[in-house]
Amino acid sequence: MKQFVQAFKEAGGWLFTSSSPPSKSETVPITSYDSHLNTSSNTPFNPNPELQEHLYGREWLLEELPFNLEIIQEHIAAGCVTLSPAICIDNKRPCCVRCGNVTPYLFSSYDCARCMKRCHYCRQCLTMGVVKQCSSLVTWTGPPPIIPSYEDETLCRWKGTLSDAQADASHSLLKAVRDSKDFLIWAVCGAGKTEVLFQAIEKLLANGKRTAIATPRTDVVIELLPRLQKAFPSVPISALYGGSTERIPGAPFVIATTHQLLRFKAYFDAIIIDEVDAFPFHHDPMLLYAVKKALKPSSPTIYLTATPTGELKKRFLSHRLNGVKIPRRYHGHPLPVPKSVWAGNWRKQIKNGRLSKTFLDWLKERVELQRPIFIFVPSVEVLRQLTRLLNEYVKAGAASVHAEDPERHQKVADFRKGTIRILVTTTILERGVTVPFADAAVFGADDHVFNESALVQISGRIGRDSRDPGGDIIFFHFGVTLEMVKARTHIMDMNKEGGV
Amino acid sequence: MPYCLWCREAYSPAASWGTLFSVSLEERFCQICEERFQAIEGEALCMICGRDLRLLDERYVENRMCSDCVRWEKDGWKDVLQKNRSPFLYNEFMKEVMTAFKFRSDAILAQGFKETLQQYYRIHFPDSVIVPIPLSHERLNDRGFNQSEHLACLLEKPIQPVLVRRLHEEKQSKKSRKERVMPRSNPFEVKADEEIKERLEGQSVLLIDDIYTTGATLRLASKALQPLKPKSVSALTLARGW
Ligand SMILES: [Zn+2]
Ligand SMILES: [Zn+2]
Ligand SMILES: [Zn+2]
Ligand SMILES: [Zn+2]
Fold it and tell me: What's the complex ipTM?
């Protein structure tokens, strides 16, 4: 009792839910609950199953809970729910308990109208709803809910067959998961990495283990959900991303953006991170913290990528991290190897309203062959200029997409349909989007945004369909960079390893 | 090295008149982000609401006023709002920043507008008495701060919070179109000590708000202030739709 009063006071002393913001009369000081608390000790307490499902393994802000004050109070009194301050002040320095932020310039403060004090708030995890010094984090400290067991069922209804390389990887992954070991699947674009996961996921779920596939990108969550629902039709799957509404609290299988993992605490028995090298996951200590927090202690993390970078690659190559490589595409054909073509000072050219002959010649040839063309550019500025020029020089229906383009999904759909012939894009489409029979150009491949991993990913868009496994991928440049060389070598090495 | 308030990238501050004289360098937008705001500039602004008349069809301009303001003046709201000025257009980027500022309670973002707002005060509304547009009690409790008061504080002048706003007004979407522009009753009323009320008598009053949309909010607030006999009521709003 004393403890929770303390937590309450530290948390500003207010309790309210988001559905009904407090007016003066609803905001009850903690002392008025004393009489109510005494009654609960005599009779055995039955936790509310809905609240239990909602809170178990989670970490919510008090104002995020769709339950009324009284229910929460009862559970706090019975020790089933615990409140704790969301921001700790340690040695005068604030620390955000939800996201792990301790960087001073990622905190700010103002005179808070809720707690009537100078109130610190965390700027690192703001997109998930503000965490203030007067906010409380709510966790479940009662008995865990019973998780359905699927032992007698065939959970995975996927009817396809794995290639030999996929089957090997699937087998090794299964073993790693059984031994609770971290694991890396290094699979070329088009290797069919999702199918490699099915066997391990099935095993985990059958044993009553909670599993997540997390990815830095919302697009990937949206794309994966129907595929996984089809593969595991009897399993409740929850998809979480910014703006999604969670319909299945307590689902044993979760597909989420890495940000959403911040709302979990010791929930998962395994987390698979897809596209682990994609922005913003890598280099973001918050997302690493989120994964760690969401996992139960000593549970495995599985990394999935075509282009491992930095620490992950080092750990794998030095055998500190187990893993497999799938160097061959599912259809068995080699990866198209990019060609580098000199295009002169492209920056100056577009500024002066010109385009290099090599670039134009290639483009016209591809347009004549009626092939859809991706053109990757280094910035939104280049995107605008180039698109304008293309509609002037090559009248073939060029459109552009960038990250903040509200019509992005529509344009990609039009490109698939063929109503848009040339799609000029920033690196946002470097992953995910594939269109059969397409070619790709990187315009300004020497720009610093095109590192090895981006160039490998871009090259991976091409030749995914077994009916057209070739396809052109050209790096138009004003001087070959080391990253371009590395990307080419990377792809050729994979082809060699794949024996194609 | 300072960090940009918005993109949080470290940046080297360009030596401009602003940075030369300002004491603190840290709480600003970097140049790249700053350029994404769209300033409302030039001479051709509506005398009242400050909208850029060049963006309007000629039919909607009359005596250097936009047709919206002409209508207000004719419909019994003559001189209720003397003049509004907004430094920025409410473009996509401003919308993003305002969403973070208001709805995610990222209060510090306001600091990035400090210099601009101070400059506007000096040029357009010198010596005006500052009154921020209030939030209703519940909304204030919800959000933890009043964005208009926050903007008003940036002016570093005394603030007279004489207005209060009654309970939640109904959700905008539930109202008819006409009511959306003008609610049936005025949600604002004056609530302050006599001594503070007297400070407005015969003075130029400046209302502070984040966004100018239809101008109805500001005019209603001005109406509520009229019993205090101000000489005039104007408004400084951070951004406005075109
Ligand atoms: Zn945080
Ligand atoms: Zn507070
Ligand atoms: Zn910036
Ligand atoms: Zn006007």
Answer: 0.84
